[in-house]
């Protein structure tokens, strides 16, 4: 079987050129696809290298110590090495594969188009000569038939028509001879055009075969180089992974734990929890304070919710009993808060109220010092670990008398006089005509249930706008009642909230 293009693409229909041209066009498309593959692979490698470099930059190991830290540092370094390798591979593919392949394809296209154009011109000339020769042949044959017919008619003609017939016959013979000469000339020109076409077509076939052989051989070489480049990258990645595995083998759990203990140990002594010490007994046994049957700050007889008796029996878990001097000092908290609202009338009665707290028979040192809200951290509650709520400042008074009740006729008279003088004062929690502005907002940390009409009930997580701050540790805020949907202002302990 022939293996030459120059001997395998002939035929009467001249289809060989179309077949060869189609083969070369397909070869060009395949070459273009391979060049596009190289280009896309280079782009992928470049993008992957950049992403690896970004990952290596973001990866941090500063929080780790010991042998694991060394392994993580190596992982980071290998990421950077791999990123550079992929970027180098991308550049190598572009320089050694993509660009040379594109240039090779363009060079072959120029040669192919040149030979194809020459053969096309020769083929068109040959076709024109063939058509002209065919026309000359038809004219020559037609005149030959005409002469033959005239010769056949000559014996049967009468004498008077013989001369005229003879003239016509001679004229036809002359035209037939002329057509014969033209026909021969056309055939000669056709033969010359055919020879030129044949030579150029044979040359084109040889050149087309050379181009195809070069293309196949070139693509084999480029694909081989591509495989070598990628395998080099794979070898580099495998070596990188092997270095990481070697580093992991040197990583020891016990060494890292020992290093952490050596550098960060805080001690071996276990702290003892704070024991419970009762104020009255100075032991771990609990003693209950005497019942208070009368609230000393009697100025608030006419203020709703201001007159209440506090004792160990009616204090809730969120309002623990105050002890010793703190119990006496706390009695002035709500008193101070409301005397500010009473204005001049309350300040005039302050001296009388102060005398009530200076009696030596009451618990504590008898001072009228205002005790602010304790804002310390909640304490641990024994073994359970639960946190107690902060101490609420309440007007509780612990009396030192054995009977547990304080009586004084002079105080009773002062109490009645004070009540008469300030009886017209009232606290309206729904009155916002004073144009109170929000100072800031707080979030409730512990539930608090109001103990008086002028106080607010707040729950954990609730956000409360604060419109006033008082020195005694009680703040005034605004809430919306769930039942009525109305805005209500009132007091709450500041150590039950945190400022936003």
UniProtKB/TrEMBL annotation:
PROSITE patterns with a match to the protein in the record: F_BAR (PS51741), SH3 (PS50002)
Biological process, per Gene Ontology: actin cytoskeleton organization
Subcellular location: Cytoplasm, Cytoskeleton
InterPro entries, sorted: AH/BAR_dom_sf, F_BAR_dom, FCH_dom, SH3-like_dom_sf, SH3_domain
Gene Ontology cellular component terms for the protein in this record: cell division site; cortical actin cytoskeleton; plasma membrane
Biased composition (Polar residues): 378-387
Domain SH3, residue spans: 437-500
Sorted UniProt keywords: Coiled coil, Cytoplasm, Cytoskeleton, Phosphoprotein, SH3 domain
Residues covered by region (Disordered): 152-177, 360-387
Gene3D superfamilies tied to this protein: Arfaptin homology (AH) domain/BAR domain, SH3 Domains
Pfam families: FCH, SH3_9
F-BAR domain sequence ranges: 1-256
Protein's UniProt keywords contain Coiled coil: yes
Domain of life, per lineage: Eukaryota
Biased composition (Basic and acidic residues): 160-171
Keyword Cytoplasm: yes
Protein name stated in the entry: SH3 domain-containing protein
Source organism per UniProt: Rhizoclosmatium globosum
Taxon lineage: Eukaryota, Fungi, Fungi incertae sedis, Chytridiomycota, Chytridiomycota incertae sedis
């Amino acid at each position: 079987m022939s293996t030459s293009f120059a001997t395998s693409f002939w035929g009467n229909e001249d289809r060989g050129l179309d077949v060869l041209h189609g083969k070369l066009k397909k070869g060009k498309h395949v070459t273009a696809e391979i060049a596009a593959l190289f280009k896309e692979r280079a782009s992928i490698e470049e993008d992957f290298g950049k992403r690896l470099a970004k990952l290596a930059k973001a990866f941090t190991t500063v929080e780790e110590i010991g042998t694991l830290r060394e392994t993580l540092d190596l992982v980071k370094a290998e990421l950077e090495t791999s990123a550079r390798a992929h970027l180098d591979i991308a550049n190598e593919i572009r320089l050694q594969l993509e660009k040379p392949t594109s240039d090779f394809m363009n060079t072959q296209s120029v040669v192919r188009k040149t030979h194809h154009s020459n053969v096309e011109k020769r083929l068109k000339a040959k076709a024109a000569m063939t058509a002209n020769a065919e026309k000359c042949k038809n004219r020559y044959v037609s005149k030959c038939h005409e002469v033959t017919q005239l010769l056949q008619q000559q014996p049967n003609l009468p004498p008077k028509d013989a001369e005229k017939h003879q003239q016509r016959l001679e004229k036809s013979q002359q035209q037939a001879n002329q057509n014969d000469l033209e026909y021969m000339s056309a055939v000669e020109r056709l033969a010359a055009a055919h020879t030129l076409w044949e030579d150029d077509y044979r040359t084109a076939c040889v050149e087309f075969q050379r181009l195809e052989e070069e293309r196949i051989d070139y693509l084999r070489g480029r694909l081989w180089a591509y495989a070598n480049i990628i395998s080099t990258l794979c070898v580099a990645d495998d070596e990188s992974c092997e270095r990481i595995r070697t580093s992991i083998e040197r990583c020891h759990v016990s060494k890292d734990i020992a290093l952490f203990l050596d550098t960060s140990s805080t001690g071996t002594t276990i702290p003892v929890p704070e024991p419970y010490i009762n104020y009255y007994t100075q032991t771990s046994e609990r003693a209950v304070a005497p019942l208070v049957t009368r609230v000393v700050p009697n100025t608030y007889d006419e203020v709703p919710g201001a007159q209440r008796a506090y004792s160990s029996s009616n204090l809730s878990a969120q309002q623990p009993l105050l002890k010793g001097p703190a119990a006496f000092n706390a009695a002035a908290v709500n008193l101070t808060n409301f005397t500010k609202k009473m204005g001049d009338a309350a300040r005039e009665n302050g001296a009388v109220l102060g005398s009530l707290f200076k009696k030596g028979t009451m618990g504590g040192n008898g001072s009228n010092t205002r005790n602010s809200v304790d804002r310390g951290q909640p304490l641990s509650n024994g073994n359970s670990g639960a946190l107690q709520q902060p101490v609420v400042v309440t007007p509780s008074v612990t009396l030192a008398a054995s009977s547990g009740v304080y009586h004084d006729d002079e105080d009773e008279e002062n109490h009645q006089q004070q009540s008469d003088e300030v009886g017209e004062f009232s606290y309206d929690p729904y009155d916002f005509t004073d144009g109170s502005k929000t100072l800031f907002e707080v979030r409730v940390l512990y539930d608090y249930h109001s103990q008086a009409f002028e106080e607010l009930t707040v729950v954990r997580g609730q956000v409360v706008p604060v419109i006033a701050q008082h020195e005694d540790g009680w703040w005034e805020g605004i809430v919306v009642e769930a039942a009525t949907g109305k805005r209500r202002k009132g007091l709450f302990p500041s150590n039950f909230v945190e400022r936003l």
